[in-house]
Amino acid sequence: MRSEIWSLIAYMGAPMWYITLSPADNKHPLCLYFADNKESFNINIHRSDDERFRLVANNPVAGARFFHFLVDMFIVHVLGFGKHRRGLYGDTSAFYGTVEQQGRLSLHLHMLIWICGTLPPNEMRRRILDPASDFRENLVKYLEGTYAGDFMSASLKEVEADVRDASTSEGYKDPTEMLPEIPPSRCSKKKCNGCDRCTDVDSWWSRFRRVVNVLVFRSNLHKCSSTRNKDGSQNKGRAFKGCLDNIYGKCKARFPRPVYKQTGVDTESGSILMKKTEQWLNTFSYLVTYLFRCNTDVTSLRSGTAIKSVLLYVTNYVTKAPEDACSF
Questions:
Q1: What secondary structure, in 3-state letters, does the chain show?
Q2: What domain range includes position 304?
Q3: Is residue 64, in this structure, part of any structural domain at all?
Q4: Is 105 a domain residue?
């Protein structure tokens, strides 16, 4: 795996994106359909948490089929690879992914992505620090348009209150257990005074922002106390260790993260400090979160140090057992 990935770098240059995708197999309607014995597909599958977990646990083939389907959809429709069209992050020239098996035997993906036209880290740093170039401004626009570390037009307290109020209402449906809603067709008129189609599109975008906030709150919000009791002691009933279960007592996931009110540039190192106002969130893409409804992590690799660290982390799966790691 290390030989393959270094060969890719020698041939394609430095990767631009590092993405982690962790599909929630015990919540997604498609996986529950694969694991069930019913022939007809029903989007709204009303089952308890325990029933859904046992259904998927008793059918690992269904979980593997579901994971393979979602990864294929990500490569084809989000990255646009092999379809001769631009993906969410640009024109994808190559990708390399490793699959890890979690403690409860579900699968998640770590993927490196190469984008056509990406500059080497040293050249990118030179152009970022060049005051006469508009490269920095264009790069910031590109990065801010592809990933973020905040809720959409809301704060953590506002989203938490919205989720709490909505979950107590009658007929509430958890977005993590539903398929994404298809957006309506756009209005073809150049000048429109607010037709029904435009109203439908505006309404869909409003629901999109609200659903994304709920998904990020439920799937991406980090909590260091997940394996701790109220008195701070370790919960022996948990089958896995938490991020604080180490000799240092510090979060292994590096939370809370630094926050920045707006995107800026470190004039000495050339590093871009992306806007981020929520310290308990990682970075992600709104569209990927909306489509896959699970925990995701999207990171832009803009320095040689970050690239080397990620390559070491990804290729460490070569030391695991064959059934625990494989590559795409």
A1: CHHHHHHHHHHHCCCCEEEEEECCCCCCHHHHHHHCCCCCCCCCCCCCHHHHHHHHHCCHHHHHHHHHHHHHHHHHHHCCCCCCCCECCECEEEEEEEEEECCCCCEEEEEEEEECCCCCHHHHHHHHCCCCCCHHHHHHHHHHHHCECCCCCCCHHHHHHHHHHHHCCCCCCCHHHCCCCCCCCCCCCCCCCCCHHHHHHHHHHHHHHHHHHHHHHHHCCCCHHHHECCCCCECCCCCCCCCCCCCCCCCCCCCCCCCECCCEECCCCCCEECCECCCCCCCECHHHHHHHCCEEEEEECCCHHHHHHHHHHHHHHHHCCHHHEEEC
A2: 1-149+293-328
A3: yes
A4: yes
Residue 134 lies inside a defined structural domain of this protein: yes
**What are the tens digits of pLDDT across the range 54-100?**
888 888 899 999 999 999 999 999 999 987 789 999 999 999 988 88
Structure tokens at 88: 């969410």
Residue 295 predicted with pLDDT over 70: yes
Burial 311-325 (b: 16+ CB within 10 A, else e): beebbebeeeeeeeb
Contacts of 149 (CB under 8 A, 6+ apart): 257, 274, 275, 276, 277, 278, 281, 282, 283, 284
Which position has the higher pLDDT, 25 or 267?
25
- Output 205 or 231, whichever has higher pLDDT: 205
Within a domain: 89: yes
Give the Cα separation of 121 and 135 in Å (integer): 14
Task: Encode pLDDT of 112-137 as tens digits.
Answer: 999 999 888 888 888 888 888 899 89
323: which 2 tokens?
A: 């059934």
Number of domains in the chain: 1
